[in-house]
Amino acid sequence: xxxxxxxxxxxxxxxxxxxxxxxxxxxxxxxxxxxxxxxxxxxxxxxxxxxxxxxxxxxxxxxxxxxxxxxxxxxxxxxxxxxxxxxxxxxxxxxxxxxxxxxxxxxxxxxxxxxxxxxxxxxxxxxxxxxxxxxxxxxxxxxxxxxxxxxxxxxxxxxxxxxxxxxxxxxxxxxxxxxxxxxxxxxxxxxxxxxxxxxxxxxxxxxxxxxxxxxxxxxxxxxxxxxxxxxxxxxxxxxxxxxxxxxxxxxxxxxxxxxxxxxxxxxxxxxxxxxxxxxxxxx
Length: 283
Description:
Layout: H1 2-42, H2 48-126, E1 130-141, E2 146-150, E3 163-166, E4 169-177, E5 182-186, E6 193-198, E7 203-208, E8 216-218, E9 231-234, E10 246-253, E11 256-261, E12 270-275
Antiparallel strand pairs: 1-2, 1-12, 2-5, 3-4, 3-12, 4-5, 6-7, 6-9, 7-8, 9-10, 10-11
């Protein structure tokens, strides 16, 4: 048993000694080879230059091949970093573009509202009546009931029954007053009744809402012949509206006389609430 162990130990030592001898021989061989090339180069032995060039080219090629994976990794890493940077920059620019688009839309909306308000203010300057400018908050519309909610109420001096205009054109009257808001009954509402006058003969009639865009004229004289494009104004006979407020133009429809309103009740943004001197609330 002990002899077998000794044989195994001897075999390992022999292998190690052989390996060490090979390494020493390799170093000695390389050293001698270097000396030979050195002397060849000093004494300019024929063929030494060609051999040296071949060896140098081989070494350079092998070095280039050996370092190419590291260069590839470096280039790949640099390209990846650039790609990540471009992606992040693109995301940031897209967010900024969305913000700019949102701001442009807000500016456009403000310009439209400013234009509408400017138009209302210019109308106020041209009239002698006292007006309160109100913004439309809500459009309460159904097939027959037409009304809007405005942001003026009793706090601003609004009373029930006051006329409401779009510029200088009548669109309805106040029927409900809260502290900060009011409800306006439009001319085309089914419950709207407004005394009006029209034509060169100052024909008297009642403008009655029917739920459509064109309210009709009722209580007309007998044998009345409906003509188109006659200007319709408030008559003031009800004691609520001042006389002479423009309403629309007559327009025959079948056997009825209707009125094409000057102001489209579906396109209201700002309105004028007309205040008459010493006007009292009408119930």
